[in-house]
Amino acid sequence: MADIIKKATRESYGEALAALADKYPNLVVLDADLAAATKTGIFKKACPERFFDCGIAEANMMGVAAGLATAGKIPFASTFAMFAAGRAYEIVRNSIGYPHLNVKIGATHAGISVGEDGATHQCNEDIALMRTIPGMTIINPADDVEAKAAIEAAINFDGPVYLRFGRLAAPVFNDTSSYKFELGKGITLRDGKDITIVATGLMVSEALNAAKQLEAENIDARVINIHTIKPLDKDIICKAAAETGLIVTVEEHSIIGGLGSAVAEAVTECTPVPVVKIGVNDEYGHSGPAVDLLKEFGLCADNIAAIVKKAISNKK
Amino acid sequence: MDATTKKQLQATACKVRMGVIEGTFNAKSGHPGGSLSISDLLTYLYFVNMHVDPSQPQMSDRDRMVLSKGHCAPALYAALAQRGFFSYDELKSLRHIGAMLQGHPCIHTPGVDMSSGSLGQGISAACGMALAGKLDNAAYKVYTILGDGEVEEGQVWEAAMFASHYKLDNLIAIIDNNGLQIDGAITEVCSPEPITDKFAAFGWHVITMDAHDFDSIESAFNEAETIVGKPVAIIQKSIKGKGVSFMENQVGWHGKAPNKEEYDKAMAELSAQLRELED
């Protein structure tokens, strides 16, 4: 078996923007002094006349993006998730969300896999914050193929979109030739009848690995990839709740307000079943290598498999 | 400016002020003080300077207005109504449930180019519009009006830095320097002065004008037209509550609506001013 290629979705972001520049002449890219890290520098090199560095001033960047959108541009406002969703929250709400402007927010370095920079830069709250904004679409792609497809889908969607990307290289498990991105539609990656693991972003490949481990122990786990957290594909979630009777959610985000909360909210209204949430447990991260941090915080296949087994035994 | 034109503008400004009183009285809330201090400015912009068409509010080459100090929406609405974007009667349902006119400007209202009101944000959106104009080689100008208290927001200076860096000479920010904010005199709350020097230091071309003298307003905007390579900040020295004697320079009228007695008194004063101008 060939080695699995790994690529950070922030790389996908920069590459996709550059690749789409000619096709979409209204596309413009803004950054806040992080072009080398968010990878919008790739776009800057390809299309310097449509790249604008706003300096370390995220609030203004979001407002500038809003103004550009009123004049028909499709701005991608880019910075770390901490500053996009956190620092600039109220500008995103009032200047982008309320007027429902066609602004795309490219938020990189989401979650604790930021690694060594530590808690101040590890944003585990962005999905929760963005979910509360009426009309905001939230996409958290799982790999390079999905990220690139999601970026083009966001361009073709009229309205504000929050795109969440990671710093850490993630396994590329989707196949470009067969992959199809549908906004707001979950993807069943693996069927199963005993339990459903609902995962998003970096955790999707971990969930697939956990399902493989569980198979060896005769546990038949369904795996659903939710790339669009809002609007949530309630149909796929409720069907899974009805058919498997138990759900475990996995996200590189706080267990408060993110995917797990969204899934639990949906399930309580259709088919109430236990929903066990795996994520960051109401605490800050800290410095360390990303892979070690993910293990420490239980965001890995081994822990997912262990939690699934526990959930199944609790249910019995 | 010739005397006839000036008189006409003064009369229109008087009607805009009546609209401010009408709106805030019917809403039983709102911000008359800062609305009255920008009534002459809005009159000049919408009746002399700005290229707009009330029958095509979304016309792509229109000049844009972002009321960054969005709480003074009653003045913007009154000016838009005078200019024909919607009927004067709309002012009577300002802030009511189901009304078109929201407490702060909403982009879905004809003539309103940007939702605003959370202070410090409008100027950034105006920068984005001006940048889009540059990208498209469009001729339109972008105007944004800020309060002198509003410039205490850090985002204003992020935007000031951006506008100067990208040489947005199609952007004109007017700072309504009436000297008062909710908690008192701007110099006593947490002074943003010297505002003029600050904009100059950020690389803007700065002009000061008398906010209630149409000759001064005309001369400021004529000067602004000539500036190349820099954004323009016009610091307008104004009187909060201008035109209604008992509201002038009174911080208490920042965010308080007139009651029936005060409404009648204000309307009587403004009607008398209007009669004199229309004689």
Task: Please explain how this structure is put together.
The complex is a heterodimer of chains A (316) and B (279). By secondary structure, chain A is an alpha/beta fold. Chain A folds into two domains: 6-171, Thiamin diphosphate (ThDP)-binding fold, Pyr/PP domains (Rossmann fold, 3-Layer(aba) Sandwich); 187-315, Rossmann fold (3-Layer(aba) Sandwich), CATH 3.40.50.920. Chain A has helices at 9-20, 35-38, 41-46, 58-70, 81-87, 89-97, 126-131, 144-155, 203-216, 234-244, 259-269, 290-296, 301-315; strands at 6-7, 27-31, 51-53, 74-80, 104-108, 137-139, 161-164, 170-171, 187-190, 195-199, 221-225, 228-230, 247-254, 275-280. In chain A, the strands form three sheets. Chain A has a seven-stranded mixed beta sheet with strand order 3-2-4-5-7-6-12, with helices on both faces. A five-stranded mixed beta sheet of chain A has the order 9-11-10-13-14, sandwiched between helices. A two-stranded antiparallel sheet of chain A has the order 1-8. Chain B is α/β, with parallel strands linked by helices and 279 residues long. Chain B has helices at 3-27, 32-37, 39-49, 73-83, 122-135, 154-165, 186-189, 195-201, 214-225, 260-278, and strands at 64-67, 142-147, 171-177, 180-181, 184-185, 205-210, 232-237. In chain B, strands 1-2-3-7-6 form a five-stranded parallel beta sheet, with helices on both faces. In chain B, strand 4 (180-181) and strand 5 form a beta hairpin. Chain B is globular, with a radius of gyration of 17 Å.
